[in-house]
């Protein structure tokens, strides 16, 4: 009897979207060809720091500050929070040269030593502040902490680290300072998409903090296979106050399992979890029961190769129509083809994809079949 994935794993869907494509090609071959015809020489202009300062551009620089890796802007309080290597700054958003507060947060000498003993480079064995979120009167900061991630609360008023607030950051912040990840704070709960181990081989989408039990994806390549997370956004499904459901969308690329003939083929995805999800029974205890994912299709025509690497995503809500559009930035995964593109997807199309039809796979020949409804 032929087995299939739909019988023993949480459903995965693939989506051939009908999205409007907005092409912003960075590879300017056609433009260069026209320039050659007209014998036009490109003009190269280099702006120095002095040029930018003369134009009124403000700079925040510190001799002891390196590896700035996270920013959080609070427009209502005119604050800009900056996470760097072993330090968190509070700046005046209207004048970033004005420092309003600073918290030093370093790895201990022992933590750095253990990190290096585990064959990590010395430059990576520091506390890189990768995540910043405001939670009420506190600023949640998470850092890699020499491949032993930690999270802590910073009092916004005094801008000091709250004693006793430091906790383990595994599943919330990556171990590796160069690893991509995504996170978002929703109703006092942290949603994070990262890896939970030293070597970065155990990816997960995780919900923590708050009053409810933690919940995550299963450790299964059918759910997540070598993903590279880029963005999480919150959206509401439904309209006019009828059956509204808050969801978190996760944008990422991963190694495809449905194309057995092509090794390490990267495909862009969007996944969804519902904020009201409390997990399931038996094997789904403390696991998402609303998790589904879809392939994001982005190509220049039906016969063209698709863009496989998702680099970033953003959500835009129209004030007049309340329609939501998602924009995604793509690159090709082949070095010989240096193209980029931006594709746009409507909320309606994404919701239709998550509603089905669903794909079923055979573990022997990987043949795809469409199922009209979501598998149990």
From TrEMBL:
SUPFAM superfamilies on file: Sema domain (SSF101912)
SMART domains in alphabetical order: Sema
Pfam families: Sema
Sema domain: residues covered: 44-376
Signal peptide interval: 1-33
GO cellular component, one term: plasma membrane
Name the UniProt record assigns to this protein: Sema domain-containing protein
Keywords for this protein: Glycoprotein, Signal
GO molecular function ontology, one term from the record: semaphorin receptor binding
Record GO biological process: axon guidance; neural crest cell migration; positive regulation of cell migration; semaphorin-plexin signaling pathway
Superkingdom, natural source: Eukaryota
């Amino acid at each position: 009897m032929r087995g299939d994935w739909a019988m023993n794993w949480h459903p995965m869907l693939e989506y051939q979207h009908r999205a409007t494509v907005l092409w912003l090609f960075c590879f300017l071959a056609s433009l260069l060809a026209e320039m050659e015809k007209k014998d036009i020489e490109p003009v190269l202009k280099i702006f120095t720091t002095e040029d930018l300062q003369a134009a009124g551009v403000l700079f925040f620089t510190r001799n002891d500050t390196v590896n700035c890796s996270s920013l959080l802007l609070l427009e209502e309080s005119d604050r800009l929070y900056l996470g760097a290597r072993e330090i968190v700054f509070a700046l005046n958003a209207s004048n970033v040269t004005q420092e309003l507060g600073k918290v030093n947060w370093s790895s201990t000498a022992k933590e750095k030593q253990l990190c290096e003993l585990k064959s990590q480079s010395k430059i990576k064995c520091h506390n890189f502040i990768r995540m910043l979120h405001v939670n009420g009167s506190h600023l949640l900061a998470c850092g890699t902490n020499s491949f032993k991630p930690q999270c802590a609360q910073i009092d916004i008023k005094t801008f000091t680290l709250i004693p006793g607030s430091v906790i383990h950051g595994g599943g919330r912040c990556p171990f590796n300072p160069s690893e991509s990840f995504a996170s978002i704070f929703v109703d006092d709960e942290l949603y994070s998409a990262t890896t939970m181990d030293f070597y970065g081989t155990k990816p997960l989408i995780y919900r923590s903090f708050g009053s409810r039990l933690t919940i995550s994806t299963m450790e299964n390549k059918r759910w997540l296979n070598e993903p590279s997370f880029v963005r999480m956004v919150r959206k509401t499904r439904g309209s006019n106050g009828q059956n509204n459901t808050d969801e978190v969308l996760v944008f990422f690329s991963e190694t495809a399992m449905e194309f057995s003939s092509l090794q390490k083929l990267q495909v862009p995805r969007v996944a969804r979890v519902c904020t009201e999800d409390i997990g399931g029974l038996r094997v789904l205890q403390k696991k998402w029961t609303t998790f589904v994912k879809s392939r994001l299709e982005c190509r220049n025509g039906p016969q063209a190769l698709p863009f496989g690497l998702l680099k970033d995503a953003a959500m835009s809500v129209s004030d007049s129509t309340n329609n939501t559009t998602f924009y995604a930035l793509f690159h090709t995964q082949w070095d010989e083809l240096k193209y980029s593109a931006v594709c746009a997807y409507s909320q309606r199309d994404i919701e239709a994809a998550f509603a089905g039809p669903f794909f079923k796979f055979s573990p022997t020949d990987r043949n795809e079949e469409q199922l009209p409804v979501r598998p149990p």
